[in-house]
Amino acid sequence: MATGRHKGIPSHAFKDIFFDAVDGTQTALKAERVKETRRFIASRVRFNFTPVFSSESTVNLLTQDSGARLFKALGVRPLLMFYVRPQVEFINSSWWQWGVWGNMPFEQWYKHRLRESKWDEMLVAMSALPVEHELHIGTCSENVVADFYAKLGVDPKPELLNARTNETLSTAAISFLLRNRKYRPTPHANKADVILEDFAPFKAAPKPWCLQPHLVEEVIERNRESNLRLLELVPAHVAEQIAADPHWWDPNAYADKRHWDWTDPGILAEGHNDADALRRLSEKGMA
Question: Which of 105, 172, 188, 199 has the fewest beta carbons closer than 10 A?
Fold first, then answer.
């Protein structure tokens, strides 16, 4: 693992490489993509860069047999970094990041996400990846940025250690984007999120919550045995953090959360700060 400067491969690049190099139907295309990627990685390592494949769906790709074939084809020994968080928090934040912008009704989307929130199963699959690799596990309750850079042996800029980015948008920002869907047309078209996340009039509004109390309880109970197994799979210090955090185990830890109804017709009424938000998006190149 190279130290010094740090350069990441965009999320979409990982998916393109993965499917073209492993699951594509054209053999020539697969071979060429593998060669192209190996050259890319070699060029970055030569100049002391650390290539990083970063995507929320990476874990799903790696736990398939083709994930191992990809790394074998690339001739690399991957460092897999896996950070876990309580499933209730994961499901809530992922709804606002992806779900609400898609076409799937919440009830259907929720059931799908609930089935895919067994961290122990993902960890077992990653550990069994039939290629030489290193696996690093942490929790989202710690400073993930600091831990990530420390593992890479890189000294980050001090401001990065305390910065909070890519957080769930506020109810005000989400309301604005629901009124102006051309700026948030799909689950992954999130350029407007980045522009608006520090927009002061929106930032002051509360964070949204999509789970009714009975769903919070269901998520915790449906994952309790899975999380108990997780304690046996992670390093001791990570297990201690999980065991001591009531957000993994107790619905009462979310007693202060209030469900926010994003389907309320009142949300579609123009907001006081819409004109300023539209001007900000325009200044950032989003007409």
Answer: 105
Spell out the residues 6+ positions from residue 57 whose beta carbon is closer than 8 angstroms to its own: 15
Is residue 84 a contact partner of residue 242, using CB atoms and an 8 Å limit?
yes
Residues 6+ apart with CB under 8 A from 282: none
Single-letter amino acid code for the residue at 279: R
Nearest to 232 by CA among 157, 156, 137: 137
Strand partners, 139: 84
User: For residues 59 and 191, which has the higher predicted lDDT (pLDDT)?
Assistant: 191
pTM (two decimals): 0.83
Alpha helices in the chain (DSSP H): 11-18, 27-46, 58-62, 65-74, 87-97, 106-115, 119-127, 144-152, 158-162, 171-179, 191-196, 200-203, 213-233, 236-244, 274-283
User: For 194, how many CA atoms within 13 A lie in the half-sphere containing its CB?
Assistant: 7
Instruction: Report pLDDT digits (tens) over 85-132.
Output: 999 999 999 999 999 999 999 999 999 999 989 999 989 988 887 778
